[in-house]
Amino acid sequence: MDKERITNSESEEEIDEQISVRQSDDNGVFASVNAEHNIHCLTVIGQIEGHYILPPQNKTTKYEHIMPALVAIEQDMSIEGLLIILNTVGGDVEAGLAISELIAGMSKPTVSIVVGGGHSIGVPLAVSAKKSFIVPSATMTIHPVRMNGLLLGIPQTLSYFERMQERIISFVSKNSSIKPERFRELMMKKDELVMDVGSVLDGENAVKEGLIDSLGGLSDAVQCLYSLIEENKCDKFVCKKKTVDTKSAGSTTKSAKKTTSKKNGTGSRATAKVSAFREYHPRTGMTAKRGTTDVSDRS
Q1: Which alpha helices (H) appear in 85-217, and where do they start and end?
Q2: Which residues form the domain of 90?
Q3: Which position among 143, 173, 176, 199 bears the catalytic label?
Q4: What is the pLDDT of residues 163-175, one digit of tens each?
Q5: What is the domain count for the chain?
Q6: Which of 100, 120, 132, 176 is catalytic?
Q7: In the annotation, is 37 catalytic?
Q8: Is 257 inside a domain boundary?
Q9: What CATH number corresponds to the domain at position 106?
Q10: pLDDT tens digits for range 17-45
């Protein structure tokens, strides 16, 4: 961008800010100024922090930061789409599900891409977008729900774990192409993880299982998001056009009805006038009987 083309009312700092890439917020998220579409990039990295604060040396994604950011993105009219980059080892189950539900409930186009890893609760996060991508070198670990700390070895605890696990299976199966039975089978698979049961899927196998939509990189995810944005705009335009056409058709129908009624009214009044003229002789002041054909003045 040439600085001479910018009006003199703008300061040099504003010009430099427009020329360079601007930082959109304090979470390390950047947005390009001269992009084809204005999209927001949301990163889910490290461990997802839930109700408990993790040690300071852990790289975390705090759900109390992500959730209001998603609400702001949904309301911001300048943002046309959301790109979610995932490289997470998992974390708090309820926090991850809460973020996943918010992403799945957004009206704006959303695309996710798994790079590095999308393990544990990162699986629901990956499938929560309208379209999901994974790079060939990335992996996704599927395993049952587990919890650290003091637990009570009673049937209620096991029932709680089972119900939480069913919540994850239901969400993943509804937002991807994998069947609940197959996902549960991968979750309980033995002899693959050293200290746990479960499965590790690389990028190609994740697509074959129907867990992820497509295999691709960053450019593929961005182009897919652009396509979704354009489709969304076309759908809105068609809906608006249909609404306008429906309103115009309704108004045309109403005007036609009014015209018809007016014509009918005019016709009835004209008929009344004609019949009154035929039944009344203006010169003699005498009223002719109905059925009388000759009411002329013969004098």
Answers
A1: 93-104, 122-127, 155-174, 180-187, 203-208
A2: 35-216
A3: 143
A4: 999 999 999 999 9
A5: 1
A6: 120
A7: no
A8: no
A9: 3.90.226.10
A10: 544 444 444 454 555 778 889 999 999 99
